[in-house]
Amino acid sequence: MASARQVNIAIIGAGGVGKCFLSQLEWLAARRQNQKLVLTYIATSKKAVYSDSYSPIALDSVVSTLSSSSQAPLALPKLVDYLAASGTKTVLVDNTSSQDIADAYPSFLRRGISIVTPNKKAFSGSYKLWQDIFAAKEEGGALLYHEASCGAGLPVISTIKDLVETGDEVTKIEGVFSGTMSFLFNSFAPTSGAGGGKWSAEVAKAKELGYTEPDPRDDLNGLDVARKLTILARYAGLEVESPTSFPVQSLIPKELESVASGDEFLTRLPEFDAQMEEVKAEAQKEGKVVRFVGSIDVASKQVKVGLEKFDLSHPIAALKGSDNIISFYTKRYGSNPLIIQGAGAGGDVTAMGVTSDLLKVLAQL
Q1: What is the pTM of this model?
Q2: Annotated binding-site residue? 170
Q3: Pick the catalytic residue: 89, 207, 228, 304?
Q4: Binding site annotation covers 301?
Q5: What's the mean pLDDT in 286-309?
């Protein structure tokens, strides 16, 4: 048996966020006095590193060890058994956006394996999965944190949980929940009125700078924002069935929804610039700017995602770069909302959200 102070870490996913997390974990493990953090399993979709004896995987060389490995990842039911059989407290870090892994969370939690993750799909999938996850967590006495599933490293999930669990009543939530959409509209329709290129050019620029998914349609369809709103609405007490159960405005022209590739989409997008110019001009006539926002009205149970016009003095209009802003209106805070603002995307800040969740788990194990 390992000593009581040891905590085993298992990681799935070693992409952008995964690699940033590994370097933060290495830093953390070297400084952790009272607990020995031991990486015993790491996998991508194709490769894995682990041993039957749960021997430690060196953190300073883990990326190269993984890329040269000939081991295949364990199937999820087998991974549950493997982690549960170690006899040592174990935390699973899921740095993927996989629905299959999300669907397996109840199996891990039921066996006492704690989870930290930025994976939105576990918490914005079907309402039944949401219920199953939290029931399994109680049943297995495991811990579960997913701060980075909404707003990267910004303290969004912890804030709404604190508000609700201390008896405050959330009445409304609104904001810009996508770093991509923030960047696009801050460039396309700046508050200065002057400037702002053609819509298609701004989308191409955002892709070039790495602000969009490889296929920009995955951002422009609004589903990423809808997933984040689903999570927040559920914490606010609404039984939202799924991210497709409320109005979500897509910014993909109908004619381009089914083109074969992201590149073809970008090539043809200029044909539709006039539509977005019209939207921008209409807002300007009223002395406003257009932004892509999400809102939750708790009393009327209304959740929606799409374009809205804002006065130039409004905090949402004045955002810079790819920042997110989330405003919580509650009984206690009255007409002046509690506002969280800052970088809502990027490997390092997302990994920070995961690492800070890991610290919360370690403090309670």
Answers
A1: 0.92
A2: no
A3: 228
A4: no
A5: 96
